[in-house]
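Handover notes (outgoing to incoming on-call)

Open items:
1. Universal stress protein: sequence verified, structure written out, both below. Nothing else pending on this one.
2. Nothing else urgent.
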Amino acid sequence: MEDRRIVVGADGTPSSADALLWAAGEAQRAGARLVVLHAWDAPGEQAPYAPPAWHDDAPYRHARAIAVLDQAVKLIRDARPGLRVEQRLVAGRPEVALARAARRAALLVLGSAAHHAGDGRLGVVVLSCLRWPPCPVTVVPSRPVLPPPVGSTSDARQLEYAATGDLDAP
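Universal stress protein structure tokens:
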């Protein structure tokens, strides 16, 4: 059974911010509740492929996770006042936490910075959620910031679009 809930992952990256804003717009359009989830690497829960954390202090990592989630929710509330937003902080691997949270949801939204990697490969979290989707999944690409042509009269408009995605920007 599907409910009117959209789940979006937040990890503090620019591609995550793009996914958050896209998901917020979709939730508002659909009249759905938006669930913003951040999974953090609790002690003993770090993925085997992940590089070791430079700071192994669990309270520090927990505080950092709270800050990432708070920043994500603030971004959405600033962009879409009045949108029903639920925040979830989960200790564990993001692909597992997202799959569990998105069971029976209307949509799972993930950000991807594949074009930033230079080879177009998707990350482990995105691939895992696409391989075993708990519900329909949307992968939102990060907007590339391209330099405008030299001497172009639309330099400011192109930069505004890269920053906001607003085609009607001055």
